[in-house]
Amino acid sequence: MSQTNGIGGSHAVSEKPQTRIALDSKIIAITGANRGIGLGIANSCLDNGAAHVYSIDIGDTGDDFLAVQKRFPGKLHALKADVTSEETVTEAVDQIVKEHGAIHGMVVNAGRTKHKPALDFTTEEINQLWSINLYGAFYCARVAARAFIKCGVKGSVVFTASMASYRPNKRVPSAPYGASKAGVRNMTHTLAMEWAQYNIRVNSVSPGLVNTAMTYWVPQQEDWPQQLKYYGGMPRLAEVEELGGAYVYLLSDAASYTTSIDIPVNGVIGIC
After folding, report:
1. Fewest Cβ atoms nearer than 10 Å: which of 39, 170, 270, 272?
2. Can you tell me which family this protein belongs to (predicted)?
3. 149 lies in which domain range?
4. Is residue 178 one of the residues assigned to a domain?
């Protein structure tokens, strides 16, 4: 059976397109998911039927992680790895494949942020940001792609970018951070082009202001109500779980023809 592709050719239809957004039976890895945004994504994936979710993180798990584990017995796991070391990430992914026979999605989420004037950044601080946000992101995506190809899986890579990749935050600028996340979005488009031949999709999500341990201070500012009027949009920070739907969609088979895009999740507040 064949179907016209709309540009004068045809292709074999091997399977029916999926219309249901779900992660049934999928094995998902998320870097930096011991807490914060990554853990929120893990929770959303499990809520939407993922068979197993692995956090690949250099740190230890905490009470929040244990609470999600309790909700989904035997489905949320933690593996230690340093995303700036491609070798350790490869070992983690190899372990996942060994345990389950495949891996279907990789959320490249681990990141670092620091806000200060550009003239005040030290070389060490810049290297710390870029080693995790850029080099680590590239390594993790490449490890996942190799695993997808080896397993014969139509895999999905989803990067966590940032609204800072579009424009700076006037209140707390960070040129190295914004540049690293802009690099992630460019990487998304380039890898999507390169890996389409392997049926690997590559996309990204750009959160705006999110309520995490790194942003606790934001609503504590005396002029926060005035800032919200200035920013416009929804007058609050996002909760981590509110980002999950974008990741779930991009990881799901319902997004089988969605690649090389970025989804801003910013409540219109974004970064101005």
Report:
1. 170
2. Belongs to the short-chain dehydrogenases/reductases (SDR) family.
3. 19-265
4. yes
SS3 content of the chain, % helix, strand, coil (to 5): 45, 15, 40
> What separation, in Å, do the N-terminal and C-terminal C-alpha atoms of the chain show?
51
Task: Give counts: helices (H), strands (E), the chain.
Answer: 8, 9
Give domain status of residue 185, yes or no.
yes
Residues with a catalytic annotation lie at 162, 177, 181
Contact 265, 240 (CB under 8 A): no
Q: What is the pLDDT of residues 18-30, one digit of tens each?
A: 888 999 999 999 9
The verdict on residue 7 lying in a domain is: no
Taking CA atoms, 138 is separated from 41, 106, 133, 237, 251, in Å, by 20, 12, 9, 29, 18
Question: Tell me, what DSSP letter sits at residue 206?
Answer: E
Residue 2 falls inside a structural domain? no
- pLDDT for the residue numbered 6: 40
**What is the number of domains present in the chain?**
1
Q: Give the CATH number, domain containing residue 236.
A: 3.40.50.720
